[in-house]
Design a protein that fits this description.
Blueprint lengths: L1 H17 L16 E7 L6 H14 L4 E7 L8 H18 L3 E5 H13 L6 E7 L13 E5 L4 H11 L5 E7 L2 H17 L5 E8 L2 H14 L2 E4 L16 H11 L4 E5 L9 E5 L1 H18 L9 E2 L3 E6 H7 L5 H6 L2 E3 L1
Parallel strand pairs: 1-2, 1-3, 3-4, 4-5, 5-11, 6-7, 6-8, 8-9, 9-10, 12-13
Antiparallel strand pairs: 10-12
């Protein structure tokens, strides 16, 4: 009888282990848990800026024992507010089911459509932002459950670099699409100009345009009126005939086909777009800084609001020797030696 009871007990325990847990009457069962970090990108997975930020976040969180889930709002290709609200609602529901320790929200679209409506002050996961161009008070930042990394472009240093490469360049036209992010970027540039005095190059024109056709006219006009052209964001231009967003590769190829003046870039999303030079803002740095904040919160606990908001500092000096040769320019050796990125 005793052996029979022992056999039944062993059989019962074996069944429980096979089911993945041992049940004890009256004791609540602990679930297997993992520490999750969700990343919400404003744009799409193919966008190089998003890829660089993801890489920086993963590098910072390596070895922290977290599972990273990445979601995309796809704002470059689908900028309609209605579509963005629907995408944000869907992502918020999925985040709710995952119950992450914190959420990293990337660029301004993710703050406006997801972080503010669904996360900030809601008693859920902590929020770490990066890539934000708007004034922080636009989103009610900072807050007790929010911290992050502001984004700034290196206008002043970029203009200075171009002038050193070609001292004949005295004026520059700055062109961007009419996206919300581009508006914030230009506001930062104007604030820098007011606060710190003249740039190395005089601004002959500053324009934001909505359509690809307007972009073409603006580029051709700028090339006639200025010694150089600074090309900012052009990822949200639409075709006047179809209303569809024009692929950035199409814009890039057209730019290269017509531009005969030195060109300047600011974002590493356009490092391979044929610009002569630039001091590029690094998406990897944005992700790395945000990821380090996330790592601190995951491993040490506390509130996001206890960590001070920071701003990117690193600028990647790049020069394009192929473009210089096409323009008949010789880039000084000391500049080439100092550049982190030399395209040949």
């Amino acid at each position: 009888m005793r052996n029979h009871l022992r056999f039944l007990l062993l059989l019962l325990l074996g069944a429980c282990v096979f089911a993945g847990r041992v049940a004890f009457p009256g004791v609540a069962q602990a679930r297997d848990t993992v520490t999750r970090v969700c990343v919400v990108q404003s744009y799409n997975a193919e966008y190089i800026w998003s890829q660089h930020i993801n890489a920086g976040i993963r590098n910072a969180l390596k070895g922290a024992g977290v599972v990273i889930d990445v979601f995309y709002l796809d704002a470059k290709r689908n900028p309609s507010p209605d579509k963005l609200r629907a995408a944000a609602q869907d992502i918020a529901a999925r985040i709710g089911k995952l119950a992450p320790r914190l959420v990293i929200t990337v660029d301004d679209v993710a703050q406006k459509y997801l972080a503010v409506p669904y996360l900030v002050g809601k008693g859920g996961p902590q929020v770490v932002f990066c890539g934000v161009n708007a004034p922080l008070e636009t989103y009610g930042y900072p807050a007790s459950d929010v911290t992050g990394v502001r984004e700034r472009w290196h206008f002043r240093d970029g203009f200075d670099l171009l002038h050193k490469i070609d001292p004949r360049v005295k004026t520059v036209a700055v062109l961007l699409d009419d996206s919300e992010s581009a508006g914030y970027v230009l506001a930062d540039m104007r604030a820098d100009l007011a606060r710190n005095g003249p740039f190395a190059l005089q601004l002959s024109d500053v324009a934001m345009v909505r359509t690809f056709q307007e972009w073409k006219r603006a580029v051709l006009s700028a090339q006639e009126r200025a010694d150089a052209v600074a090309l900012g964001l052009y990822h949200s231009l639409v075709d006047e005939a179809t209303g569809a967003v024009v692929p950035v590769e199409t814009v890039r190829d057209w730019n290269l086909s017509v531009l005969r003046k030195p060109t300047l870039g600011f974002s590493d999303a356009t490092r391979d777009h044929g610009h002569l030079c630039g001091i590029l803002e690094s998406g990897h740095e944005q992700g790395l800084l945000a990821g380090r904040m996330a790592r601190h919160l995951v491993l040490r606990g506390g509130k996001a609001g206890d960590l001070p908001v920071t701003i990117n500092q690193q600028g990647l000096v790049f020069v394009n020797l192929k473009t210089a040769e096409r323009l008949g320019l010789v880039i000084p050796y000391e500049i080439i030696k100092a550049a982190e990125m030399v395209i040949q």
